[in-house]
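This part of the workshop introduces the protein records we will be handling. An example says more than a description, so a record of this kind follows:
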Amino acid sequence: MTATQTPRDAFELLMAGNERFVSGTSEHPNQDATRRTETAPSQQPFAVLFGCSDSRLAAEIIFDRGLGDLFVVRTAGHVTGTEVLGSIEFGVSVLKAPLVVVLGHDSCGAVAAACSALQDGQTPGGFVRDIVERVTPSVLAARAAGRETAEEILAEHIEHTVDLLLERSRVLAEAVADGRLAVVGLSYRLADGSAQLVASRGLDAVAPAAS
């Protein structure tokens, strides 16, 4: 893996690892003492992974990768703030990762809480409320488009996050426009471990899976 890797190369490498994980043939690459020594001086991750903090979404496990492969940023419900944007920009502009992945999943507590808040008008207290409020626009947009199922709402939230990253970050938007970066959205299924493509920016030859 090098900094000259293309967005498509990075995407295919990531998805190949997920296929191994799903089939039970994980290879656990780059997880030994040799790799630890190799990456100690510097890192060249091939992807920035921005995912939900859910304990069942351990990125290096579900994509069968190891040390130095993924630059991981995680928040509940993959909600975006300045710290998140700065971290992702660092992974792209400094570490030269050619791929940014937004990773959501079914049975997401943040999405469920936003749906409940809209239904009964009650939101959680503390800073959890802020997370729910940031997910709510995705739920509203999905419903306005007639997308009511949990799967459809999740896909909307993932795609909304992808677009939000590109709207708020000139660094990311310019890298996509120049062909140096792709930003994709994946929906992870907890039961079978598969990651499905639901949004793609800069990876035009790969069509998102049907909702």
Helices lie at 7-23, 33-39, 59-62, 82-94, 109-120, 128-144, 150-168, 170-177. Residues 150-168 form the longest helix (19 residues).
